[in-house]
Amino acid sequence: MKMSIITPSFNQAAFIERTIQSVLSQNYPDLEYIVMDGGSTDGTVEILQKYSDRIIWKSEKDNGQSDAINKGLQIATGEIVAYLNSDDTYEPDALQKVADFFEKNPDKKWVYGKCKIIDAEDHEIRKPITTYKNILLRKYSYAKLLSENFISQPATFWKAQIHSEIGFFNEMEHYCMDYEFWLRIGQLHPAGVIDSYLANFRYYTNSKSGSVNKKQFQDEFRLAKKFGANHPVSVFLHKVNYYKITGIYQILSLFK
Asked: What is the pTM of this model?
């Protein structure tokens, strides 16, 4: 089962080599790894050149993260696809666990697993948040997804054929393109669950998610309202969860 992983990148020389190594060290037998760089000037290109014999990469100006992901997905040839941001990493054997899941569950179109939160030095942080999300992700439901985005993007994989049904990532969404995509898939297909850690999400002050939490959660609520017209209770719960989560992050910010 061929798997294609896409990494969008822009000026992430501090982290991208760790990301690349986490993918290549999977030693997955049928892997296509594509890095779509937005024209970095910080040494990223020199790092990509080191791996030219093992990855497909391109460095050119793009229209943002979603555009870079879509460009990679459009040239991907794997049956299973995913994207891993240039500062995140995979856990050992993650890709094999995903392949095993799809082999055993051929009816499933997408799957997610557990994800740790790490800092700039690869140390696990914010364990209470991870524990909370692990409780939520044990059993998938669309109503629950509308009430809260509990799915961790780095630990999510899907069959490439889904793009012929729902298209690609919405390039108008800059912070929640993943959540918007999950909501579109979820309208048609229930997700599978892998009860293992598959990836690590890097959280630090200068990261995209680390610097725009409030905007991200506002956008998630907007999307929940858009897709939840027939789920008013879930939309109401999402609003409650918005205040809860932003409050928690404000408290956590005091302990940086």
From this structure: 0.93
Kindly state the helix (H) or strand (E) to which residue 19 belongs, with its residue range: helix 16-24
Instruction: Please write the tens of the pLDDT for every residue from 215-227.
Output: 888 999 999 999 9
Local structure of 59: helix, strand or coil: strand
Q: What is the DSSP code (8-state) at residue 153? A: G
Across the beta sheet with 56-59, the strand order is 56-59, 31-37, 3-9, 80-83, 156-159, 110-118, 192-202, 89-90
Tell me how far apart the terminal alpha carbons of the chain are, to the nearest angstrom. 42
User: Which domains does the chain possess?
Assistant: 3-253 (3.90.550.10)
Residue type at position 232: P
Task: Answer yes or no: are the C-beta atoms of 76 and 6 closer than 8 Å.
Answer: yes
Cα(203)–Cα(226) distance, integer angstroms: 28
Distance CA 156, CA 150 (A): 11
**Dihedral (CA of 207, 212, 214, 219) sign:** negative
Structure tokens at 127: 């364990």
